[in-house]
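Deliverable D5.2: sample structural annotation.
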Amino acid sequence: MNLFDAAYQALMTPDPDRKCVLAAALLEDWSQGRVDMEGAGSLVHPVEVPGRPERPELVSPLDVRHRGLGSLEGRAALIHALSHIEFNAINLALDAVYRFRDMPAEFYGDWLKVAAEEAYHFKLLRDYLAGMGYRYGDFTAHNGLWEMARKTSGDPLARMALVPRLLEARGLDVTPGIRAKLVAAGESGAGEILDIILRDEVGHVAIGNHWFSHLCAQRELLPAETFVGLLAEYDTPRPRPPFNREARVAAGFERDEIAWLESEL
């Protein structure tokens, strides 16, 4: 089995269940040595839109309706939003495997692990949503995560900086608050799922930090200054304190860098 062909097949598969199966199977095949990296020099196709179901309807982030957690519908809408983030995260990890061909073999193993764990997270949230009487696709969603993947498709340094170190790290900051609100609203099961997700996302951000540092060292760049420069170059949202310092340190952020970000941004 060729790694890049298999990753592309999973990336472009529209059915969420099938995508999850392919992501988990590809990690298993990689772990068992059944995957080769031949064809690394073959053409890398641009992926404007990865495989996704017809629903949810994608709208501008400003047009995603926010509902209060006092109603079942409001809580379901939040679980749906979290499910959509995890679905997009599967595609982001698969795209990193497919797109960036000149990285060490460990890079691909790391991102295949991320893809499989994101698939697991998606299924947990999707099944919880079904228990509430809703399906993935019942609410609108936005495509901000994939837009960042598209913008950073030409450079693994930018991808590592602006997906795991920016967007996923933001998840480390906000997940505890979201968990507390859901538990307070009676969704203790959702809180348990978010505990799993937060634990795993620390590892995902750590992987991004590792490969960002690797690429900075390779290019003789200073990581902290390079990160801030990429935020400006790509015109991204800035990291906003308060930061989850404990989770960020566990994910590989230096305490000095966190303090520097708080003072500079």
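Annotation notes: The chain is about 65% helix and 0% strand. The two ends are 45 Å apart (CA to CA).
The annotation will be released with the project's public dataset once the embargo ends.
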